[in-house]
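Can't paste images in this forum, so I'm doing it all in text. The chain is below; anyone willing to post the predicted structure tokens underneath?
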Amino acid sequence: MSGLYLHIPFCKQACSYCDFYFVTRQEYKQDFVDELIREIQSRKDSRFTIDPIQTIYFGGGTPSLLTPSQVEAIMTAIDEVFDLQAEEITLEMNPDDVTREFLSGVKSAGVNRASMGVQSFDTDLLNFMHRAHNSEEALRCLELLQSSDFNVFTVDLIYGNPGQSLDLLEKDIDTILQFDPPHISAYSLTVEPQTRLGKQVKLGRIIPPEDDTVALHFDLVINKLEEAGIMQYEVSNYAKLGKEAVHNSNYWSHVNYLGLGPGAHSFWWDEDLSSAQRWSNKPDLRSYLKSDWEQPFEAEFLDIHDLAEERLMLGLRTRTGVSIDELKNRYQYSFNPDQLQHLKHLEYDEKAILNENIQLTKKGLKIADAILLDILTK
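Text version of the structure:
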């Protein structure tokens, strides 16, 4: 099985923290859809159509700026080119775009999972993030989602914001839980250098919270969601049993995926499974509309050692961890004595569990990036 990622590059405005490729001019939307369909059709009878498609993800940007008929046209093109056996088709949405008619339209087009970018309900925080929606729109769209035919949806939340208190975060979590979401993605605010936020931090106009404060936010998110039966299954992702995101889980398991649209990334194993390639389309809409997707913008060859370290890194961010046998048999990777000693220390410190799998505990997932760096540099 494999997955498709479709990058829809349009946004109403630039969020202060976002470093994904986007444009704020809307007049090329139909031209983009036409070009995306041409890119989809170009893959017909290629190596990318051998595997059945298990998941499709409309990301961005803001995919909810497309009309349901545009989404349907894209889905029709996919169905004509690929062996579509999709278990999960996700479309990212912003609250200010959502109406009952929109939800019904994209559901009829084949979308069966909605990803709602709420981030917060607090007016000051939404203004700080430079979000296009307000608190009332977020509440209204969640009411619409809860009463719609979407029985699987996810809500995004951002914590670790400057000036965000634990009380304010708890209020956001409690508000989300009123709508009984099957899945929540909760991200710690990340300062990327080229973003508006990154430039403000560099100039000293904004001071990010201390690590200890962010850690308290992380603990609050885990504990509040766990009490509601929404369990952490990856560092930033929480779900009720059986409602975990299939598409993202496949990323972490090294399943093939093909990215379409400007700035989209792809990952594909070579036929003998001894290496893989990762590449992207150029993040430029004007170039994309001239069919520049015919040549990869950035291509990276990954040998089996690169893949092993990446699989370890991705797997240890999840609650299930990574199988020692899988590392050995599929990736030809074994831990050296220093790594084994370090893993034993992690187990002693109750940060990891060692059996057939290597798993980080709740305590370990809290500092997963630091643990991974320590393991890989031993």
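The mean pLDDT is 94. The radius of gyration is 21 Å.
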